[in-house]
Specification:
By secondary structure, the chain is an all-alpha fold. It contains eight helices and no strands.
């Protein structure tokens, strides 16, 4: 009863469902509410809903998950990808999309790992020369010369 009231308040955009509510919807396999939370929730709600659809979802939730992999928040799109892979409905299009997106995720993680590894490295070689520094040095040299 309480979870139904929370769902009504969520539909009215008054509150966001908590993790316990989403877990209850997962246990009762209420896929419609989880899909709505994935579409209209904030980023934590969307992430939790995508993870919950992995356990309670059906092949009918694939279009919602395909829309969720283009989310602006990386954690939501990664959770949607994991759910699509776990559901594995056997559709060739879904399989190719998840492979391509997982390559994108792997590239992002490799890039973050490389940045983290090079975080403390000091670079003494400058790859370019700034134009403003060049013009500043030229003006400084002109000011050193006597005026005529």
């Amino acid at each position: 009863m309480l979870h139904n009231i929370k769902y009504i308040l969520f539909r009215l955009s008054v509150v966001q469902p908590s993790e316990n509510t989403i877990n209850f919807w997962t246990d009762t396999k209420d896929v419609g509410k989880l899909e709505y939370a994935l579409k209209h929730g904030n980023y934590t709600t969307r992430k939790l809903a995508a993870e919950a659809l992995e356990h309670a979802g059906q092949c009918s939730s694939v279009p919602v998950l395909l829309h969720a992999i283009n989310d602006t928040v990386q954690n939501v799109s990664i959770a949607a990808l994991n759910t699509l892979e776990a559901l594995g409905c056997g559709d060739d299009l879904v399989i190719s999309i998840t492979k391509k997106r997982f390559n994108w995720v792997k590239t992002l993680r490799d890039k973050e790992a490389k940045q983290y590894a090079n975080k403390d490295k000091k670079h003494t070689i400058y790859r370019w020369e700034r134009a403003s520094k060049k013009s500043f040095d030229r003006v400084k040299e002109q000011l050193k010369r006597p005026m005529r």
